[in-house]
TrEMBL record:
Source taxon at top rank: Eukaryota
Species per Swiss-Prot/TrEMBL record: Rousettus aegyptiacus
Listed GO CC annotations: ubiquitin ligase complex
Name recorded for this polypeptide: UBA domain containing 1
InterPro entries in alphabetical order: UBAC1 (IPR052476), Ubiquitin-like_domsf (IPR029071), UBL_UBAC1 (IPR057650)
Record-annotated UBAC1 ubiquitin-like domain positions: 4-98
Length: 115
């Protein structure tokens, strides 16, 4: 009988319900030692049907624990974030940062303000 090494030493496998902002829902399995970033990458591959054309895509999304309404930290593991079996996670695209003011606008504001 052949058994894969990672299956022998894997932590508890959690079944997580993932809901994307486009309405897609699926079940994702992950071990307790899986990082949130790794889970997010797998979720994005599921949404993008196997290809992550933009490598920044991972940083443009966040996972939210639905029950506690908190954003999960990419650097922590699932167990560190206290995620339990059958929990619901939301995959949300982050808001785009507001654009920085143009230098022409900044210099115009400085001329108006006579301090």
């Amino acid at each position: 009988m052949f058994v894969q090494e990672e299956k022998i030493f894997a932590g508890n496998v959690l079944r997580l319900h993932i809901c994307a902002s486009d309405g897609a829902e699926w079940l994702e399995e992950a071990t307790e030692d899986t990082s949130v970033e790794q889970l997010k990458e797998r979720c994005l591959k599921h949404c993008a049907h196997g290809s992550l054309e933009d490598p920044k895509s991972v940083t443009h999304h966040k996972l939210i624990h639905a029950a506690s309404e908190r954003v999960l930290s990419d650097t922590r593991t699932i167990s560190e974030e206290n995620i339990q079996d059958q929990d619901v996670l939301l995959l949300i695209k982050k808001r785009a940062p507001s654009p920085l003011p143009k230098m022409a606008d900044v210099s115009a504001e400085e001329k108006v303000d006579p301090r």
